[in-house]
Amino acid sequence: xxxxxxxxxxxxxxxxxxxxxxxxxxxxxxxxxxxxxxxxxxxxxxxxxxxxxxxxxxxxxxxxxxxxxxxxxxxxxxxxxxxxxxxxxxxxxxxxx
Length: 97
Prior knowledge:
With about 100 residues, the protein is an all-alpha fold.
């Protein structure tokens, strides 16, 4: 019982820190967030990078949307999901229309 409580507390702490780090970028320009995502991706933390790419894409960065699509297409940092990849690729096309 004690171990599950510790694990739950640790999980909630990690989750809150992850959300805080992503939400902390909310006021930064989308291009800056995208470049931070690239740095994080290159450092090996693919999951955190995808979160940054999604934040940047939701702020209108089409390069970030392409990266999110690629990550979903090939299952890098997220589970492979071709339908989700197509959604992100369509967002790029819609933004350019």
